[in-house]
Amino acid sequence: MATMGVGIEGSGIKGARVDIDKGDLLQDCIRIPTPSPGDLEQVLEIIDA
């Protein structure tokens, strides 16, 4: 089964599809810089895109 893994850090938001049964990445990880000031709405818009 696949799901989306997301990491939110101070300098960037990272995400990739992950096979949760095997723990393997199914694609290369993408990275988008965290917006400044990085309020919740801005971060959620990036994750939703």
UniProtKB/TrEMBL annotation:
It comes from Candidatus Brevifilum fermentans. This is ROK family protein. It comes from the Bacteria.
